[in-house]
Design a protein that fits this description.
The chain is of the alpha+beta class. The chain has helices at residues 8-53, 60-65, and strands spanning 105-107, 124-126, 137-140, 148-152, 178-181. The model has no long low-confidence stretch (mean pLDDT 76).
Length: 190
């Protein structure tokens, strides 16, 4: 009995079939990864919003200080000189801040649309990172300092939603930025 191997044509057909299958599967894997990054970003934004605005169990930064934070770093460090946390009133600055730090810091890179206003004072601050490993940024309205929004630069890494832009419709964001209002009622414009 003689053993017969695969011919060159049969090997080429198998390789072509594998390439066709890979080209059909890879775009779906990229879509799944992007979807996971978006969900991770939205979860990070929810945590920042809860730390800023409070929840039923925890009044948050706004009820301790009397205003929304100006930067993400305010949620980690007591720059305002707020009193220490009182468990009876559930008010005051917590010793560990409003968010748990994982040690992530971000140095401002103005070429990707971030401004020095992101940082509190030294150019390197505690950060909450989005699903693409870039920091979330708090923007303040130039017309009303009480209006603030939280922005993720999205997959492209550029913040396209400028401080002067009207409030983007969540269904039609500015390019790929993800924007969440920190105010109880989301304004339609700045």
């Amino acid at each position: 009995m003689r053993l017969r191997g695969l011919t060159l044509i049969e090997l080429l057909l198998v390789v072509a079939l594998l390439v066709a299958l890979a080209s059909a599967v890879l775009p779906r894997l990229n879509a799944v990864a992007d979807d996971a990054s978006t969900r991770a970003t939205l979860e990070s934004m929810r945590a920042v919003r809860n730390a800023s605005c409070g929840t039923l169990d925890d009044p948050g930064f706004v009820n301790t200080v009397g205003s929304l934070p100006n930067t993400i770093d305010d949620l980690f460090t007591n720059h305002t000189g707020a009193p220490a946390y009182n468990p009876l009133t559930k008010k005051g600055y917590r010793a560990n801040g409003y968010l748990q730090s994982n040690g992530a810091v971000f140095s401002v890179n103005t070429t990707t649309g971030f401004t020095a206003a992101y940082c509190y004072n030294d150019g390197v601050d505690a950060a909450v990172l989005d699903g693409w490993n870039r920091p979330l940024v708090i923007q303040t309205s130039p017309n009303n300092p009480k209006l603030k929004r939280l922005i993720s630069a999205g997959p492209d890494g550029f913040i396209n939603t400028l401080v002067t832009d009207s409030y983007p419709d969540p269904l039609h964001p500015v390019n790929d930025d993800i924007v969440v209002s920190l105010n109880p009622e989301a304004p339609t414009s700045w």
